[in-house]
Amino acid sequence: MIRVPVAREGLLFILPSLFLSFLFCFLGVYALAAFTLFLALFFLFFFRNPARSGRSGKEEILSAADGRVMGVEDLFENEFLREKVRRISVFMSLADVHVNRAPCEGHVARVEHRDGRFRLAFKKGIDEENERNYIVIGRNSERFLVVQIAGFLARRIVCRVKEHDPVEKGEPVGMIAFGSRVDVYMPTAYRPAVEVGQKVKSGLTVLAKKGDKS
Question: Which of 21, 56, 63, 180 is catalytic?
Fold first, then answer.
């Protein structure tokens, strides 16, 4: 990601659409010029990358995605973290910002992409069946897991970090094209600050706080 209001992946769609719009306008084919201009504006909206502060308390975890909270639960994560954790899932619609951000500062301990299906993002079990990307972030003795999960329309997961990279809280780490789901796993010492159905924003909304009774 670059420090502009549009994710750089979108330039592959935006610039050709703008070029075609100007070309068709120059040739006097105004219907096609209007159509390609509409496409350019749609891609500008879809790939928008608004500035986010990433500021919060030291013991607060931020949302990694824009969207609506679809699940808050405790479970045992037996592969990457290998401990009982708290998972908060966020569903990203087509209208949401699709840039994903680090929920906390730290170092990337592991990144792994897995192929899979493209079932609807709110279906049960898609966290094990759909195409997905795992990002483990270590912070002191704690570890957090961000999982980017493709949905029915999402056919591309972008990850912008690699193992050993330092990350800052709220920093862009990737994106999922055309809506999907992002899960954040954290130690159970963190108490949820959101509830199911609540709208959240990446790099702004506090998902959980440490220190309160769970």
Answer: 180
Compute the distance between CA of residue 39 and CA of residue 138 in angstroms, rounded to an integer.
40
**Residue 63 annotated in active site:** no
189, part of any domain:
yes
User: Is residue 87 included in any domain, yes or no?
Assistant: yes
Distances in whole angstroms, Cα of residue 167 to Cα of each of 69, 107, 120, 162, 182: 24, 6, 30, 10, 18
* Whether the Cβ atoms of residue 133 and residue 180 lie closer than 8 Å to each other: no
Give per-residue pLDDT as tens, 104-137.
999 999 999 988 776 665 566 667 778 889 999 9
Same domain for 75 and 157, yes or no, is yes
Domain that holds residue 98: 60-210
- The model carries a pTM of 0.84
Give 187's strand partners. Answer: 85
Q: How many residues does the chain have?
A: 214
Checking if the pLDDT of 168 tops 90, the result is yes
Burial string for 65-97 (b: 16+ CB within 10 Å, else e) reads bbbbbbebeeeebeebbeeebbbbbbbbeeebb
Token digits for 105? Answer: 């500062």
Indicate the number of domains in the chain.
2
Which of these, 65, 104, 71, lies nearest to 87 by C-alpha position? Answer: 71
Q: For 170-208, how does the pLDDT look when each residue is reduced to its tens digit (9 = 90+)?
A: 999 998 876 688 999 999 999 999 999 999 999 999 999
Do 27 and 113 reside in the same domain of the chain? no
